[in-house]
Amino acid sequence: MAGLRFATLGSGSRGNATVVRCGRTTVLMDCGFAVNETLRRLAVLGLTGEDLCAIVVTHEHGDHMGGVARLARRFKLPVWLTAGTYRGAGTPKLPEVRLFNPHEAFVIGDLAIQPYPVPHDAREPCQFVFSDGDQRLGVLSDAGHVTPHMRRCLDGLDALILEFNHDPGLLAAGPYPPELQARVGGQLGHLNNHQAVELLAGVDRQALQHLIAGHISEKNNSPHHVRQALADRLPAEAAELTLAPQDQGLDWHEMVRHR
Ligand SMILES: [Zn+2]
Ligand SMILES: [Zn+2]
């Protein structure tokens, strides 16, 4: 078995993309960056577009899907997405559309991928747990609240990229108009720092080797607020926390194997 590794190309409302690799299988999850910017960020990780096997998409919002169609066409990549996401994006021209049911696992090369639905204001949004058959990386980037099903899917992970979108106080005092504040803070918006911490507190974290805070709002949050929220409740995890930046990627994270 080859082992699971991952890296982010960037995370936040101006663009998201994550690379997950196992053996010769390299999958890009979401692409909210223009093609040239994506290729520039891939190159930092030692990758080119030719190295990618597929793109999997969480939902149709521009910060996740804005760059998907062009990248897919340029490198003839299959795009895996829910029927709702495909329709929500306006059924873009793609070289190969692979529709999946957000309750059913699928396989791309050496990677098993378990999607799970999340409450977010898109047509049929989901998030993913990636596995090499031994270890599991969970991703949760856009959700307005945490459902019991999400908690079950993210239990006992080896690595987790988790949304810490906003601090409720900073959101309320921040520059967003009231409608946008209500959307971001609402049941179909984004997880605030405390929701993220409560999710973590409610799952088995014994195997967790990597904890990455992602989709951090530049206007309604700060690294200090993220770290403080976690430190107040889960100090051991706070000491290990990595924050995913927007303007650059995070280098490869590898897993130490169980067996
Ligand atoms: Zn987003
Ligand atoms: Zn979104």
Automatic annotation (TrEMBL):
InterPro entries: Metallo-B-lactamas, RibonucZ/Hydroxyglut_hydro, WalJ/YycJ-like. One of its GO terms (molecular function) is hydrolase activity. It comes from the Bacteria. Residues 14-166 form the Metallo-beta-lactamase domain. It holds the Pfam family Lactamase_B_2. Keywords: Hydrolase. The keyword Hydrolase applies. SUPFAM superfamilies: Metallo-hydrolase/oxidoreductase. This is MBL fold metallo-hydrolase.
